[in-house]
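FW: tagging you since you asked about this chain on Friday. Here's the raw sequence from the shared folder, copied in full. Didn't touch anything.
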Amino acid sequence: MFNYDTVTEAINGLRQRGFTLDFNLQVNSLQCFNPDINLSPEEFEIKEIYRFEGDTSPEDEEVVYAIESKQGHKGVFVNGYGPSADVAGAEMMKKLVDHHNK
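HL: got it, structure written out here
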């Protein structure tokens, strides 16, 4: 696994290694708008996870996920955690973690 000091560094490093798509959270899926891809939890795997804590504010806590679909689409999903975590994001991440650990 690689070591990154910032969220930006992690995203740039993953892009250099082929994780070029940007995934966004939907209620029960991850979506990429260009190209139009919608992935349910069983359609992708989390390849790498990087957690970052803010220096001065807990609201700066984020997680960078390297995602790969069963069809070979590779991209990045960034989500807050802790006090800044989106409720839908937390629910989706639980589904992703449960699926990944099977």
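FW: Strands lie at 21-22, 24-25, 30-33, 36-39, 44-52, 62-69, 74-80.
HL: agreed, and The chain has a mean pLDDT of 83.
FW: great, closing this out.
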